[in-house]
Amino acid sequence: MLGGQDMNRILWVDDEIDLLQPYIIYLKEKGYEVVTASNGEDAVEAISRQTSDVSHQGSEISIVFLDENMPGMSGLETLQEIKRIHPEVPVVMITKSEEEHIMEQAIGGKIADYLTKPVNPSQILLCLKKHIHQQAIVSEQVQQNYRQEWSDITYMIDTASTIEEWQAIERMLSKWDIELAEIEAEQGGRSGMHSLIEDQRTQANAAFGKWVSRNYEGWFGTSERPIMSQDVMKHAVFPLLDRGEKVLVCVIDNFRYDQWKTIQPLISEFYTIRTEEQYTSILPTATQYARNAIFAGLLPLQIQEMYPQYWVEEGDEESKNQYEKELVQTLLDRYRRRESFNYWKVNESDFCERVIAQLKGVKTPLNIVVLNFIDMLSHSRTESKIMKELANDESAYRSLTMSWFKHSPTHELLRRAAELGFTLVLTTDHGTTRVKNAVQIIADKNTNTNIRYKVGKALNCNSKNVMTIEQPKRVGLPCPNVSSSYMFCTGSDFFAYPNQFNYYAQYFRNTFQHGGISLEEMIIPLVTLVPKR
Fold this sequence. Notes:
By secondary structure, the chain is an alpha/beta fold. The chain has helices spanning 21-29, 40-52, 75-85, 100-108, 121-131, 134-159, 163-187, 192-215, 232-242, 257-267, 287-296, 300-306, 324-334, 349-359, 373-383, 385-390, 394-407, 409-419, 501-508, 519-522, and strands at residues 9-13, 33-37, 61-67, 91-95, 113-116, 247-252, 271-280, 341-346, 366-371, 423-427, 433-434, 437-442, 453-456, 460-461, 466-469, 485-489, 493-496, 512-513, 523-531.
């Protein structure tokens, strides 16, 4: 029941308005204010008065019920004038006619709904709930559902003991983060739910960091471990090749699970999901380590030992991923696979367009494209003041991802791949997380620059929220020096040196980084899709 200033105002336009008094009485009893007009000219005047001076008219007209068949100005003509004056107001066309061309004209005029006489009160009430109250109803239901599930998620966080349970937690947190953000975007501001989901993710990442610290080293040297970076090609791609499918492997750098769920509806226009999995990135969750491991099917230490010419050390100035194509070839050779393959690394839109042009003539079974746009977005967000304002939280970051995908050649690339019959394997090398809290670290001058992990000698950090690997070879990591160790931030922490600590703490706070331990960085999408027929 609505009343006072919150009362919703209905404009009902019908040349037989006197016959509609039972409906009007019914709606008033439900808490609505009903303004009537018996012709199109009076309806347009009512809308014009509201637009020019809402204050003397009271509450704004929320919806218009418009009869299609009226003498003088017709319903369709009235619709055009109403939409010219007030484009946002929903208009429900009511008519005795079921002629298709009238329906098409009405829909072309951007009506909100279409009812055929005789209508009953429940139809009218349903229209009102759908077009006036839907946002509030959906918002309340979503928030109520999250409140009910909050305790279940908290229990899962407190008791999680397997990677599958952590994957489920990441899926649930991403789902609610996306749904609550959509509600807040429609309402035009943050709600208490936003803080609640942020706090729950903070709690989850703190527990996940401790769990990884206890279990990570035990994953190596045993088959009882998660699917990791070095397993991606063997697990997701080789079986497709064995079935004779033509495969496009699309690796989007810095691609989180929630970003995948954001662009999934667009990809679903031309692809159907065959399998949707999550796999676990190796540490460090950085391109040099994780992506090289994907393409080589080996851990970084194994790459360094078996193919030293293709491993680039932390301190070297050259690109850390310049040998990806060569590493793919070593993987195929080791498994005695005879497939030929294409490899493209896309950093610019025009190059993506050239890849699209080349796809038509592709006959090779294995095709790999690496897209660096999300990585570029993440870095530009750190370095650009404007980008910091545009992507100031996860919701805005997802929105930018959606905008990029929708308007970039990548969308066209995947659509074209579907038309040409490519099975698509969509994945990433690692995710990224928004960092908030700087922790002080002391290290020598040869230590690497990444702020989520450090590798070097005599690393010293007094934070309890770090994971240290004293013997890197046990987890397949190279040792630049005999005494080198690795140190990883967990949760939303990042490293800063004592020198100019406050400056760098402020500079990097609320930027998106990778290299450390968090659900967003480590638990990432691995999706196989087939073209829609």
